Amino acid sequence: DAKTTQPTSMDCAEGRAANLPCNHSTISGNEYVYWYRQIHSQGPQYIIHGLKNNETNEMASLIITEDRKSSTLILPHATLRDTAVYYCIVSARPMDSNYQLIWGAGTKLIIKP
Amino acid sequence: DAGVIQSPRHEVTEMGQEVTLRCKPISGHNSLFWYRQTMMRGLELLIYFNNNVPIDDSGMPEDRFSAKMPNASFSTLKIQPSEPRDSAVYFCASSGDRTHGYTFGSGTRLTVV
Predict the structure, then answer these.
(1) Mutating which of B100, B106, B108 best tests the A interface, going by the most A Cβ atoms within 10 A?
(2) Which chain A positions have a beta carbon within 8 Å of B31's beta carbon?
(3) Are B42 and A34 a contacting pair at CB < 8 A?
């Protein structure tokens, strides 16, 4: 079973911020939070990752709670091209002994004009 | 950077035939992953390699599936004999020690009739 819980689907108006929540209450100390998205008929695309601190890159921001049991991916100005399935995954690095990458069903985000 | 290159993009074959899927990872990446995606089961990790060595093949569904990585720039996933239930999109992904995110290829859509 996936180690994360995400809403099945969400809508967001174009131009607004899209906030995608993820619960990962059983996260271990050496596990990172990763976000990927998959646009229809394409391979998943890496978005961002974090361990403890909030992170920001050109695509999105990642807010991780202090207890690390949940996080939120923020797309600051959603466009129609952001319509995709968004996956939240917790995982150690592949070289770590407890490495296990399990993909859940993700959140289908629909950006509406 | 051409990204992760998979071939063929589409494959239609008859039940019982051998199918070989190919992947060229990003130059310099030392981890390679094979995934399978279906509507019913989502994204499943089949096998992953580190420095050309198979590390975890517990996701390989059965002995009909085999994967090789003869060198750092090439990997194959073979199904022999193929069955209709093998129909899926197969993704290859790569990552490096200095990278957290995986880069996925565009996938091979396999249809076994």
Answers:
(1) B100
(2) 94
(3) no
Among A15, A31, A35, A16, which residue's Cα sits nearest to residue A103? A35
Which amino acid type is present at position B57?
D
Q: Going residue by residue through chain B (113 aa), what tens digit of pLDDT does each one get?
A: 689 999 999 999 999 999 999 999 999 998 899 999 999 988 999 998 989 999 889 889 889 999 999 999 999 999 999 999 999 999 999 988 767 788 999 999 999 99
Distance of alpha carbon B86 from alpha carbon B65, whole angstroms: 10
Q: Which residue type is seen at A73?
A: L
Long-range contacts of A59-63 (CB under 8 A, 24+ apart): A60/A35, A62/A33, A62/A35
CA dihedral A78, A81, A85, A91 (to 10 degrees): -70
Q: Which two tokens stand for residue A100?
A: 């296990």
Q: Mark yes or no for CB contact B101/A42 under 8 Å.
A: no
Q: Which two tokens stand for residue B26?
A: 């990003």
DSSP secondary structure of B60-109? --STTEEEEEEETTEEEEEESS--GGG-EEEEEEEE-TT--S-EE---EE
The whole-angstrom separation of Cα A18 and Cα A60 is: 10
Q: What is the 3-state secondary structure (H, E, C) of B14-63?
A: CCCCCEEEEEECCCCCCEEEEEEEECCCEEEEEEEEECCEEEECCCCCCC
